[in-house]
Amino acid sequence: MQFNALVNGHTVIMDAPERVGGEDHGPIPKPFVLTALSGCTGMDVVALLRKQGIQLRDLNLKVSGEISKQTPIEYVSAHIIYEMSGEPEHEQAAKEAVMNSQEKICGVSHMLKKIMPVTWQIVYNGNEVFNNEPQAMALQRA
Amino acid sequence: MQFNALVNGHTVIMDAPERVGGEDHGPIPKPFVLTALSGCTGMDVVALLRKQGIQLRDLNLKVSGEISKQTPIEYVSAHIIYEMSGEPEHEQAAKEAVMNSQEKICGVSHMLKKIMPVTWQIVYNGNEVFNNEPQAMALQRA
C-alpha cells in the first residue's frame, strides 16, 4: 500500500495503517489536504510579516477536519488554530496577516471554502484574539 | 519558511523555494492537494484488486493540476494518469478498480470534483484503455 510521491523534487511517503493492509510507513493520503491548507496559509503569514520586518517567536498551526459519515469519506469542514507568540506590539500585524491569507491570498483555503466551511482562530501570546468558528461546531469538535 | 507538519504520527516537511525566501527543504504546500488525490485513489486500486487476489506488477500515478491565472492561486482542473502493468487477463479488473475508486470510493476525488474537472486516463501494459479528458484540455496540458 506504500506510495512514494515525488512532489516538486521531494519524495513524500504515504502508506496505510496495518489494520487496512499497509505498514504505516507514512501518513495516509487524505489528511494531506489539510497539510496543504496549513502550509499554504502558514507560509503566507510568515511572508507577509517578513515584508514588514516582523519575525514571530513561534508559529504553530493546528488543523482539524470533520469527515463525512458516508462513503466517499471526505472532509465536510475544517478549522485552523494559529498559535503565535511574539512581541506584544506585533499582535495586530500578525492578526492582519492571518486575515489577509484567509480572505485573499491562500489558494488552498479559497478552494476548500467553495465546498465546506473553513474557520479559524488566532491565539497570540496565549490569548485568543480572533475566532470565527460557530459555537455549535466548536462544541461538536470538542 | 519551513514547516514540519505532523500528519497522523508522521512528520512531513514543507518549505518554499529559495526565490521566495525558503530553503527548499521540502515540497511547497499546494501540490499536497494532488498528492492526497493520488494516494487516495492509488490505495483504493491496490485494495480493490487485493480483495480479488490480484497484484499488479507496477502502478504509477502521475497527477497534474492546472492553476488559476489570478490570486488566490488555486487548482482549476486535475488529471491523473494511471500507468499499470500486470497480467493481460487482469486488465479489466484493473480498469474497473480505477473506475470504482473515481466514481464511488475516493473521497479526495469526490471533494475536488465539486470544484473542478477531475479527469483520468488508464494505461495498461503500455496501451491506453481509458481516457475521459476532453481533447481540448489534453492539448492545453501538452
Question: Poorly predicted ranges of chain A (pLDDT <50, ≥5 residues)?
Answer: none
Q: Can you write the helix and strand succession of chain A as a string?
A: EEHEEHHEEH
Roughly what fraction of the amino acids of chain A lie in strands?
Answer: 25-35%
Summed over residues and divided by their number, the pLDDT of chain A gives a mean of 95
Give helix % range of chain A: 25-40%
Shape of chain A: globular
Task: Please work out how many helical segments of chain A DSSP would assign.
Answer: 4
Largest sheet of chain A: 4 strands, mixed
**Helix vs. strand class of chain A:** alpha+beta
Oligomer designation = homodimer
Task: Give the termini separation of chain A.
Answer: 32 Å
Widest sheet: strand ordering of chain A:
3-4-5-6
> Biggest chain pair contact, residues each?
A-B, 52 and 52 residues
Radius of gyration of chain A: 17 Å
List how many beta strands of chain A DSSP finds.
6
Task: Report what the structure shows.
Two copies of one chain form a homodimer. The first copy, chain A, has 142 residues and is of the alpha+beta class. Helix content of chain A is 35%, strand content 30%. Chain A has four helices and six strands; from the N terminus they run E-E-H-E-E-H-H-E-E-H. In chain A, the strands form two sheets. A four-stranded mixed β-sheet of chain A has the order 3-4-5-6. In chain A, strands 1-2 form a two-stranded antiparallel sheet. In chain A, helix 1 crosses helix 2. Chain A is globular. The interface between A and B is large, with 52 and 52 residues.
